[in-house]
Write a structure and sequence with these properties.
The complex is a heterodimer of chains A (163) and B (176). Chain A is α/β, with parallel strands linked by helices and 163 residues long. Chain A is built from 6 helices and 5 strands; from the N terminus they run ααβαββαβαβα. Chain B has a 5-stranded mixed beta sheet with strand order 1-2-7-6-3. A two-stranded antiparallel ribbon of chain B has the order 4-5. A two-stranded parallel sheet of chain B has the order 8-9. Classes of the chains: A alpha/beta (163), B alpha+beta (176).
Chain lengths: 163, 176
Amino acid sequence: MGLLDKEFSDDNIVIAKVDDLLNWARLSSIWQLGFGLACCAIEMMATSASHYDFDRFGVIPRNTPRQADAIIISGTVTLKMATRIKRLYEQMPDPKYIISMGSCANCGGPYWEHGYHVLKGIDRVIPVDVYVPGCPPRPEALLEGLLKLQEKIRNESLRTKSA
Amino acid sequence: MKNPEEIFDLLKNEFKEAIITFDKDTPTEPIILVDPHQIKNVCLFLRDNPELKFDSLMVLSGVDDANGTKVKDEDGTDVINGGTLSVYYHLHSVYLKHKITLRVSTPRENPQVESVESVWKSADWHEREAFDLIGIVFLNHPNLRRILMPYDWEAGHPLRKDYKNPEFYQGMKVPY
């Protein structure tokens, strides 16, 4: 029997720092808002599907912002949609995280000059934690973005304010 | 099956001066120019006449002809005065396998066209789009409000050639 088994069977106590425990729990079960906007959403769905399997990092879609930890802005944000996204974001409980996926959500992408209806970057409306470049980003890139977010959560502390 | 000349002759006999011209020299297809206030009656005839039977409005599109005079305003951008806005109707008969294109032109300062929503239901959202993006008012449309842009968009109609995008919308900066 291993060392950890013995710990559990003897007295059911494992010693860890509160920060580490909370961060570990948070980063291992990032529930994302089930939400997609444009072609990036197709790549996001591919990332959720069996081949890339978002679920192995604890990411599953939730269908209400009230139970979501993260929101992936996957696609072109029109001005009309931006007001709705802001509202969804405000309905999410803290701590909440945002991944901006693809050129459109990062900075307006191909619509930067003549897109009269496009918000030139979702960070004009809500604070972004991780930017994933690409048009659209491949599933590997989105996974890399998620790992970056996990890294960020791992280094959070109760004493300092998070994003 | 009828060719565009035969369709034009049928319409001319029925409607006289409401059918204005027949333009054969366009690079794509012949286009019949119609009076914007008679377009609904013309379309009803095209749909119901047994020799025509246009049962399908393939697409209805608004166009800014930009054929007025261009004037510079105080910040140096062009404003178009006068000229026309147009609506194109691409019709198809599934029964008789023929097609025709209609066009109406209406003055830019007071663009009014009779709605054909009561003739083909597919015109409903197409007319709302032409209203939203070009600013053509369709008379007797049951629900003429914006379809793509936000309902509270106040900066005008984005596909007009002299459109100017606003600096802010609901506190969000619009330009890059």
